[in-house]
Amino acid sequence: MEEEQVPKEEKPQVDSPTDDTETAQTRILIKGGKIVNADRAFDSDVYIEDGVIKQVGENLIIPGGARTIEAAGKLIIPGGIDPHTHMELPFMGTQAIDDFYQGTKAALAGGTTMIIDHCIPVKGESLVEAYEKWRGKADSKVCCDYSLHVAITWWSEQVEQEIETVCKEKGVNSFKMFMAYKDVMMVNDHEFIQACKKLKAEGALALVHAENGDIIAENQKKLLAQGITGPEGHLQSRPEEVEQEATNRAIMLADQVNCPLYIVHVMAKSCADTIAKARRDGKIVFGEPIAASLACDGTHYCSHDWGHAAAYVLSPPLKTDPSTPGYLMKSLANGDLHLVGTDNCTFNSEQKALGKGDFTKIPNGVNGVEDRMSVIWEKGVHNGIMDACRFVAVTSTNAAKIFNMYPQKGVIQAGSDADIVIFNPEATRVISKDTHHQAVDFNIFEGMECHGVPELVLSQGKVVFEDGELHVTQGAGRFIPREVHASEAYSRILIRDKVRKPFKILREGDEGAGDGTMNGKGGINPMASEGDPSFATKRGQRDLHASSFSLSGQQVDDHVAPRSGRSVLNPPGGRSNIFLS
Ligand code: URP
Ligand code: ZN
Ligand code: ZN
Hints:
Elements: H1 19-26, E1 27-36, E2 41-49, E3 52-57, E4 67-70, E5 75-78, E6 80-85, E7 90-91, E8 94-95, H2 100-109, E9 112-119, H3 127-138, E10 145-151, H4 157-169, E11 174-178, H5 189-202, E12 205-209, H6 213-225, H7 231-237, H8 240-256, E13 261-266, H9 269-280, E14 285-289, H10 291-295, H11 306-311, H12 324-334, H13 349-352, H14 372-382, H15 388-402, E15 420-430, E16 449-459, E17 462-466, E18 469-470, H16 487-499
Parallel strand pairs: 1-4, 1-5, 6-9, 9-10, 10-11, 11-12, 12-13, 13-14
Antiparallel strand pairs: 1-2, 2-3, 5-15, 7-8, 15-16, 16-17, 17-18
The structure holds N-(aminocarbonyl)-beta-alanine (URP) and zinc ion (2 copies).
């Protein structure tokens, strides 16, 4: 570690510690607490050595020289994983003020021990080169483990080839598309479809910023022409339906090519409902609200203080309907939404001021990486909307599963990384820009009292935050590579490939006609939907073993014509040009 890399106020880890110090740093026993995992909570001790959880249980026999940390009355939870950050992102004529050092330091202070940031190539730039550039920026600065999503901002054969390279050689399994930021990062539907096809072929996950960029550009022009230049213009240029339409479109397009989809920064009630409905229809889609959308509303854009209003400018915007945050929190609690990010992308007041006189130039983004855990505990658990296990699921475990890092991350169990938070559910703290560890000079959660405080944080088995003090090492975080085909996203995708095979209607004179099936082998019933037992069976043959076969007489497929003993010439309901001929 180079001396000048460590700011004075932090205590750097000792380069050549004595044997005792070294042992106590690498061997830690956490005693008397309650472990909370996503599936259960139980009283237990935890023994850590060399950055890994070695034992979980009571009355553990451990080697000498270990440091004991008392955790009676506290919760021992997996370190938070923030799946959506933009540290030092070059954006809208400036650069996000929290860099990989300051941003990850703040993350640790708040109980988040891993971030997934975004590598965003400019249009025309090589994905591999952009990836190397981002690794070059992050590796030497990160204080906690991190990973990268790679954005697809343009489309070409080169991009298609590089997606494969990035998946196979660079440890990336998630790629982000923007349906907004026209002419800068936005892709059109054709490009989105091509990207999803390739991602599906590689076993990667498609992430999407869902807003209709064309309509936003129209609205912006119209509002500016009407003299609306303040932050309220940002809100009005992006009404809720702009987000909802794109959410619906992205889900439909990804589903058509059977690519799993992850909607980032879900800001609206209607979008949460759209995602929930799509999942009920069997589509594979995940929804990520952010700390901002779960705790703040869009009334801030109407503040008479320009700086205050501009500080809340992010895209999609917060919604003015004050019931939105609570609704999104309930959606998160009941499983309609799945995990919480922050979209941490911070700009100081002088950077926000670039948009004085033109709201389209206010750099988009807010804070969150430090306060996410406390805000979700306060609004979710303390308010009685979710329990502690669900809190762990949405702040850590589900991210580990969806992005294929589980069980290395996201759980307290033997063999997992010792990224651990000792969380005091009884303690309180008040969020403020004056005490936060982020570089940004504003905090969108200012003044919020939070019950539930991350009191001690371990990253890779080392105590990095204790008694309100950080003990971090710049560059100590590791890049965590992630394999493709995460089972959380892909197990059903692969089955759907089999059951969604297109069917062919055999007609008189066609080879193979006359065996009474749709395609000579047992095709798809065009009248049935996925999950219906007759979906992939011979048409008209009732499956008495299907769970939906009813003894009461009426059957789910009564509307389907009985087996004719002849090849089907016209499908039930008449001919349609959707059927292959
Ligand atoms: O306003 C936002 N969200 N800024 C960061 C970039 C993005 O769209 O995620
Ligand atoms: Zn976005
Ligand atoms: Zn973002």
